[in-house]
Amino acid sequence: MTMSFLNPVTTQTWTNGRHAVRCVKVIQETWDTRTFCFMAEQPVMFFFKPGQFVTLELEIDDQPVMRSYTISSSPSVPYSFSITVKRMPGGVVSNWLHDNLKVNDELAVHGPVGNFNIIDYPADKVLMLSGGVGITPLMSMVRWLFDTNASVDLQFVHSSRTPRDVIYHRELEHIFSRIPEFKLHIVCERSDELGDAWAGFRGYLSQPMLELMAPDFMDREIFCCGPTPYMNAVKRLLQENGFDMNHYHEESFGATPLDVQEDVIENVEMAEAEAEELDAADMLSVEFSTTGKSVRIQPGETVHSAAAKLGLHIPKACGMGICGTCRVPLSSGEVEMDHNGGITDEDVAEGYILSCCSKPVGDVVVEY
Known about the structure:
Elements: E1 12-13, E2 17-30, E3 33-39, E4 44-45, E5 53-60, E6 63-70, E7 81-86, H1 92-100, E8 106-113, E9 125-131, H2 135-147, E10 153-160, H3 169-178, E11 182-188, E12 201-202, H4 207-213, E13 221-225, H5 228-240, E14 248-250, H6 268-276, E15 284-288, E16 293-297, H7 303-309, E17 327-332, E18 335-337, H8 345-349, E19 352-354, E20 358-360, E21 364-366
């Protein structure tokens, strides 16, 4: 007789694509920052490269909205994943998540994707630099290194506005108290409004500070994430010292536009009318086989813009080939795809493209 508890569990492995998940926990990290934890109803091994991100598919005020967030958890805890979101003044999505997303709510996510990760750039000596909520991808990396007992000499430098704004403060102190090769440094711009004393580094990260924290920073693999001015300042400091920027890596999807909806600015009749005014020999045909629609476009236009001219809405978030949301199968033809890590080599080998950054070099057929 086979005991029920010995029956095998069918577990899927996470791959880049659209997945339904359920919120299982909400953690208040700081006064304005929360972590949202997700699982799938059917067990899924959420393996990803620490530092990668997902794109949430939401509906806000009856409008579809998509937004990318770094995964803050580690793949060493494989049956769930988390994102950490700071409430931003005027931020449509961050405020909606804080005010509305609760335990047992379901939504769809796309991913995981991203070139910014610690798996692809292994090193014995690492320096991590983060500012504000930019700590999230680096926290995923730290948790991974800690859980896997990695033999890494790690210097971790985090810049925060005030002590109460330091995300994961207690967990960071716990992790860095247990491994001698891990060193934690926190820089606070000022004491908080409550008047709590701050005995650590104060002000903004500078070269004298960095030399005190990590005198050998020129010899380390550097991972950086934070507000754009913060990352620009770090890059300027490193370049002025002659650092080999091949060993510098930064998170880059923060430039995702706030408005992620693509307006359908032209219908097929208008597109064809424009085509009549151009040399027909220069036009390219883009056919969408699932819907049976096709349109002729100018060289240099993307598959995504071709779909928009037909009134077809291919979901997208970043528009820069980063998030992977607009992935579609290419049935025939060739495209030039200038992506930024939003698609894997395996997906490309299977015939997928990212419509936002794929320009046909001839007539093409897309399954959509």
